[in-house]
Design a protein that fits this description.
The protein is of the alpha/beta class and 301 residues long. The protein contains 11 helices and 7 strands. The chain has helices at residues 4-20, 30-37, 72-86, 108-123, 142-155, 170-200, 233-240, 244-247, 252-262, 282-285, 289-298, and strands at residues 63-67, 91-97, 127-133, 159-163, 211-215, 225-228, 274-279. The longest helix is centred in the middle third of the chain and has 31 residues, at 170-200. Bound molecules: zinc ion.
Length: 301
């Protein structure tokens, strides 16, 4: 014999089913409604909205690349710089730190400067500037931001490159923040000048801010641009061999080639190596880099 509680439960369940089917239409149960709110593969952004599936054209020149250390420009985007050289796009590199902590070799700072000068020749750079900020000691300061602003204004690039915000090395991440802040400062000054020009009706053309791209050096970062470096990968390997002092510290050449190979995951099979970049939109450029990066990560959830 069912207990009185079982009988009441059975009647309640029947009443609930009737309520859910009133008017002929089945009403979603609370359980089904809750399930509809849970993440599922069909509701998440597909991979094609997170990664490029075809290679992109080169960004417009001239380029200005900010490298935290002598070698980052080559390991991170040596292929892109070689493609730019082939297309006669002028490229400029600024190395921010003295690289003094990159090993135990005698006269390491001078050695690394000589290495980056050799690499610059191979890469066909239009200019190379080496600053002497302390290795692992970069700080976001107004003085350093102003120094970056002066460099950007001097070169007048169409595209500026800096390390991705999710790089592991703290100098790489600080460089990203420095360049980001410098670009925002320049854009703010340009907007003020434009307002001043409009007020005075001079009719002078407003300078366009350079486009902003982050590049990957030692690990994968957010990307929305892919450059096919297949045809220059051997030349990139030759440029990487300029950095004896660093290649003797770790198997960087193999690691870089593996990262470049790994980036071809979504590419057609003929694309053998790639370098990934993130091209930031004007709306993103108005926000702090941290907020932009968190928005990009949120697309995965
Ligand atoms: Zn570095």
């Amino acid at each position: 014999m069912p207990s009185i509680i079982q009988k009441i439960s059975s009647i309640s369940a029947r009443l609930l089913r009737r309520k859910n089917t009133l008017g002929g239409a089945t009403q979603p149960s609370a359980e089904a409604a809750a399930q509809a709110l849970e993440p599922s593969s069909s509701r998440l952004n597909p991979e094609s909205s997170l990664l490029p599936y075809t290679p992109n054209a080169l960004p417009p020149g001239p380029w200005l690349v900010f490298a935290p250390h002598a070698d980052d420009e080559t390991y991170g985007m040596g292929g892109a710089l070689l493609l730019a050289k082939a297309q006669k796009i002028k490229t400029h590199v600024v190395v921010l730190t003295d690289g003094a902590l990159g090993g135990e070799a005698e006269g390491l700072v001078a050695l690394r400067q000589a290495e980056v000068q050799s690499a610059a020749r191979e890469l066909g750079l239009a200019s190379l500037v080496c600053w002497d900020e302390p290795d692992r000691g970069l700080t976001v300061s107004e003085a350093l931001i102003d120094k970056l602003c002066a460099q950007i204004k001097s070169v007048q690039p169409a595209a500026v490159f800096f390390p991705g915000p999710l790089e592991a090395h703290p100098d790489h991440r600080i460089t990203a923040q420095l360049v980001w802040r410098a670009l925002q400062k320049i854009e703010g000054q340009q907007q003020q000048n434009a307002m001043h020009d409009t007020a005075e009706a001079t009719g002078s053309e407003t300078a366009q801010p350079p486009q902003a791209f982050s590049y990957e050096i030692s690990n994968q970062n957010p990307i929305n641009i892919m450059l096919d470096t297949t045809e220059v990968i051997e030349a990139k390997s030759r440029v990487m061999s300029c950095y004896d002092s660093q290649n003797s510290e770790n198997n960087y050449e193999d690691l870089v080639l593996a990262l470049d190979k790994g980036r071809t995951f979504t590419m057609p099979p003929e694309v053998q190596h790639c370098e990934g970049f993130y091209h930031y939109s004007p709306a993103q450029r108005a926000q702090p880099l941290q907020a932009v990066t968190q928005e990009i990560i949120a697309q995965y959830f």
